[in-house]
Amino acid sequence: MATAARRLLPALRKSLAGAGGAGAGAARGVSTERAIGAAAAVGSHTAKWMQNTSKKSPMEMINAEPPIKVEGRIAACDGRKDKRYETAALGHPIEYICLDLDQPAVCKYCGLRFVQDHHH
Fold first, then answer.
1. Which residues contact 97 (CB under 8 A, 6 or more apart)?
2. pLDDT at 108
3. I want to staple 111 with a disulfide (CB 3.0 to 4.6 A). Which of 1, 58, 62, 87 is the partner?
4. Is residue 25 pLDDT above 50, yes or no?
């Protein structure tokens, strides 16, 4: 990712210098440089996660969790997998999820999946 940013930086500077006057290009160039630097930092952070293939990525860890069975048509998710604990200090805002579909419903905040447990 960092090498891609280094390759694109000269072309981006050239295109910004051509748009508007010298003052406008220079002012834009400084903020653009910061933005590209931030993008490179994010890319290196992602690369750090992906370089060790023995560890699972966050999405792989979430997908490894089996769907949570819920009695009723509505699931309430606040980010806790274990509902025995009262606090959700590191959770997320509560989301009510409709379970009318056949496939598991997914929480938009944490990715936990829920299915309706049918007792007939």
1. 74, 75, 76, 77, 105, 106, 107, 114
2. 93
3. 62
4. no
C-alpha 5: how far from its chain's center? Answer: 21
Backbone angles phi, psi at 86, to 5 degrees: -75, -35
In whole angstroms, what is the distance from residue 3 CA to residue 62 CA? 30
Q: Which two tokens stand for residue 75?
A: 């699931």
Q: Could you tell me the two tokens for 38?
A: 């931030």
φ and ψ at 97, to 5 degrees? -120, 125
Two tokens, residue 11: 């072309």
Q: How many residues does the chain have?
A: 120
Q: Which H or E run includes 61?
A: helix 58-64
- Helix, strand, or coil (residue 86): coil
Backbone angles phi, psi at 57, to 5 degrees: -75, 165
pTM over 0.70: no
d(CA 80, CA 90): 8
| Tokens linked to 89 | 């200090």
